[in-house]
Amino acid sequence: MTTDTAYALLQLAKARELIDAANAVFGAADLPPGHAAGYAKYTEEIDQSLSRAKIRAAHALRHTGAHKLDQASFQHLGEAFEQPTPQSMQDAAGRTITGRTDFRNTRSMMHDWLDIPRGTASDRLILADCLLGGVDDSGQPTAPWLPELAAEYNDPTIDPRLVMAASTKLHSARKDLGEGAAANAKKAKLERESVAFMHAEPKSARKHISAMVAEVKAGQRPLKALLESIGIFKKGLRQGLIEYVLRVLPSQAAYIEAFFASIDNPATVAGNREGLKDAEAQFTGAQVNEWGDEASMPDWAQPEAEHEESADDSQHPDTSDAEATQSSSQETTAEDSSEAEADEQPEHRTASASWEDLKPERRRLVGLMTLLMSDRTGSPPHRKLALATPQVSIILNYEKMLAQAKDFAVTSSGIQLSAGEARAALCNSGIYPVVLNGKSLPLDLGRTQRLYSKAQRRAIRAAYRGCSYPGCSMPAERCEIDHLDAWEKGGRTDIKSAGLSCLIHHTGRHCGLFHAVKIPGSRPMVLLSPELDPEQKLRINTYFMTPAEALEAQALADETTAKWRAGQLEVEIVDP
Predict the structure, then answer these.
(1) CA distances (Å), 144 to each of 130, 289, 425, in order?
(2) Which residues pair with 231 in a beta bridge?
(3) What is the band of 413 on the pLDDT scale with cuts at 50, 70, 90?
(4) For position 147, what pLDDT does the model report?
(5) In this model, does residue 332 exceed pLDDT 60?
(6) E-strand spans in 471-564?
(7) Which of 109, 148, 413, 449 is least surrounded by CB atoms within 10 angstroms?
(8) Do the Cβ atoms of 457 and 467 come closer than 8 Å?
(9) What does the pLDDT look like over 61-75, one tens digit per residue?
(10) Domain coordinates of the chain in residue numbers?
(11) What is the C-alpha separation between 153 and 156, in angstroms, rounded?
(12) What backbone torsions phi and psi does residue 412 show, to the nearest 5 degrees?
C-alpha cells in the first residue's frame, strides 16, 4: 500500500520531469509574447512554492532526524530517484539508527548530501525556527519564534520570499531585543508592523523593515560614542584598487547623498555626462582633448554640441507639463542658472544620454575627485563640469518635536536626524519654510502661472520626496513635476494639482496605465489598474519615508479608501 507521503514524493518526481520538459520547449521555440508572459508568471509562482518548500524540507529533515538514516535507507533513496515508482518511493521510507551515523547533524546532511552551502543550510534552519518551529534538546517540537509571520508564511496567497526576508531581518536583531516581557513586546510590535508593510506595499516593505531593525540595533547610543566611530578608514590594496570605509553621522550622510544626487542628475551642470567624462580623464590618464582651451581650439575641432548651445534660444521647444527640474534638496553652486537651464532646455537632459550607462558609483567618484582636485577659487579641473554644492531639505514635524519623538526631523531623502544634528543644521544652514498640513499637502507658495515657481518646486519635492508611483525608488531630483490638471485644458498651476513622477511613470500615467487621484485636503494618491491591484485601493508611495511615517501614510490611504467607497468622500480620478 502506497502511503500519502510516498505518493507525494512521486508527484514531485513527475513535477520535475514536467518542468524540465516545459523549459526545453520554451528554450527552443519562438514564443508568442503572451506565452512568454505566461512562462515568466508560472516560473515566478513555482519559485514561490519552492522557496516555501525549501524551509519546510529543512524543518522536516531536523524534525524526523533524517541525518541518522542507515546505509540501506540511502541506497533505497538512490534507487527511488533513478526509477520513481510507487513501490520504490514506499521502500525509501527508511529507518534511523543510534550511534555513529554518516552525518553529525541536519546541517551536515544538507551540506554533504544535498550540496547546500553551510551558510545557506544554517539560514534555512533559522527560518524554520522562526516560521515553523524548532526542536528542543529533548527532541520535542517548539513553537515558531515569529508566530505572526508564521501565519503569513503559511498563507498560500502571500509571497513567502518576502516573509522569509522579513524573518531573517528580525532574527538578526534577536540579541539586541534582550530578554523578558519587554523584549517580547518589542518583537511583537516589529512583527505587526512588518506584516502591515507587507500587505500595504510589498515593494517598499523590505526597506522599511530593514530601517526598523537598524533602529533596534542602533539603540540609544550617545553622540560621544557615535563621534568616536566615524571617520574614513583605509582598508588597503585589493585587486589593484585602494579601498576605504566611510562612517558618518546621519546629518553628514544627508549632505553626501545630496552631493551624489547632483552628480547623478543629468539636468544639472554638475551632472553633465560629457563634463564628467572629460573630468575623469584628468586623473585616470585616459586620452583627453589636446587643445588647451576653447580659445585655442579651431572651429573644426570644437564639439557640435557647443555650437548648438550657442544657437538662438527661440529654437528651443517649449517645456512640457513635466519640467526637467533641479533638485530642491541638492543644487549646484549656480542654483538659479542651473534651474533655469533645466526648466527651459529639457533637451540638455537627453543630449548626453549616450553616457548614461556609466555606473552611478563611478560618476559619484568622478564628482568627488573633481571637488578634491579643484583649485582654491573653486574652479573645476575642466570647464565643462561645475562643482556641486549640496543643499539638504530638512522637514521638521512641529507636533513630534514638542512630543520629543525621535523622528521629528527627517531629510528629504528619508534620513532621520537626532535633536542635536537638527539644531546644528538650523544654526549653520539657510532655512526655507515649507508649510505642510496634517496630510502632507504643501500649502499655497506661489501665484498661478504656466511653470511651477522655484518655491513651489521646493515644497513639492520636500513633501513628496520621490516618485508618486507605489514602490518606485526614483528620488525627487530625478522626477518631473506634473500638472494633474492639464494646462492646455484650462488647468491651474496650483500646489494641490501637482504630481511628482519619474520619467517612466509620468509617461505611464498619461498612457492610462494608472491614475492619479486628487483628495480634498491631502496629497494626491495613486489608483493602479485592476490587473495590478484587484483590491483597487488608493495608495501612497512610502519608499522615502521613515517606518513611522510610512505606517501613518498607509493608515491615511486606508482611511481615505474606506471613506471613498462608503460615499463619504468626493475624490477626483484624474484623466490621463
Answers:
(1) 5, 65, 45
(2) 247
(3) low
(4) 95
(5) no
(6) 480-483, 498-501, 514-518, 525-528, 538-539
(7) 449
(8) no
(9) 999 999 999 989 999
(10) 4-145, 243-286+319-389, 432-573
(11) 8
(12) -65, -15
Q: Which three cell numbers stand for residue 433?
A: 519654510
Which DSSP symbol is given to 492?
-
Q: Classify strands 498-501 and 231-238 as parallel, antiparallel or unpaired.
A: unpaired
Instruction: Give the three cell numbers for residue 250.
Output: 546621519
Nine-digit cell string for 18: 514536467
Could you report the per-residue pLDDT of 553-572, keeping only the tens digit for each? 999 999 999 999 999 998 99
Give residue for cell 525509501. Answer: 92
C-alpha cell belonging to residue 134: 524548532
Q: Output the furthest CA–CA distance in the chain (Å, rounded).
A: 93
Residue 323, helix vs strand vs coil: strand
Read off the C-alpha cell for 99. Answer: 550511534
Q: Can you tell me which residue has the cell 538578526?
A: 172
Entry field: residues in the chain: 576
pLDDT at residue number 143: 93
CB 383 within 8 A of CB 366: no
Asked if residue 485 lies in contact with residue 492, where contact means CB atoms within 8 angstroms, the answer is: yes
Q: 395: which 3 cell numbers?
A: 522637514
d(CA 427, CA 394): 13
The answer, as to whether pTM is greater than 0.70, is no
